[in-house]
Write a structure and sequence with these properties.
The protein has 151 residues and is an all-alpha fold. It is 58% helix and 0% strand. It is built from 9 helices and no strands.
């Protein structure tokens, strides 16, 4: 299980929540552990940890430049597809992408969803977003950012 900044795993937080007398008691004792960071702060931290510049991440993720910079500045809230494009731009693996989706408060990838399965496969293989888009096209699945069941 993933651990948060307080050291408690998600499984432990579930256990604490269900043992608590009330939701308020849980929040009083674990409030900081139950919070996700701001999306812009999170992607900036990933860039800093990897020694990456946002410009390169935005370009690799095939995200329009001014929109991408607004994401990093906290001026925009991304769609799920934009989060997935950022995952490719940040060169994240599937676990990192699942965490990125969680921080963005978007649905995580699921292998029973065809499009998600293709996305996860290309993340796992460290392919580019361009390679992914081609595979989605070939499988007649919505492109990232392409509308119709995509965002």
């Amino acid at each position: 299980m993933k651990e948060n900044s307080t050291g408690a795993s998600t499984q432990e937080l579930w256990a604490r929540l269900f043992r608590a007398a009330t939701a308020d008691c849980f929040l009083a004792e674990n409030g900081s552990a139950a919070e996700l960071p701001a999306f812009s702060d999170y992607i900036t931290e990933i860039c800093e940890a990897k020694g990456e510049k946002p410009e390169r991440v935005i370009k690799r993720g095939d995200i329009e430049s001014s929109y991408g910079h607004r994401l990093f500045a906290g001026g925009r809230s991304p769609s799920r597809d934009t989060v997935l494009k950022l995952a490719f731009g940040l060169e994240l693996d599937t676990d990192g992408t699942q965490q990125l989706l969680k921080v963005a408060r978007k649905a995580e990838l699921h292998p029973r969803v065809k499009r998600d399965a293709v996305v996860a496969f290309y993340l796992h293989r460290h392919k580019s977003v361009t390679d992914l888009q081609q595979a989605l096209l070939e499988n007649r699945l919505p492109l990232l950012g392409g509308g119709k069941n995509g965002e």
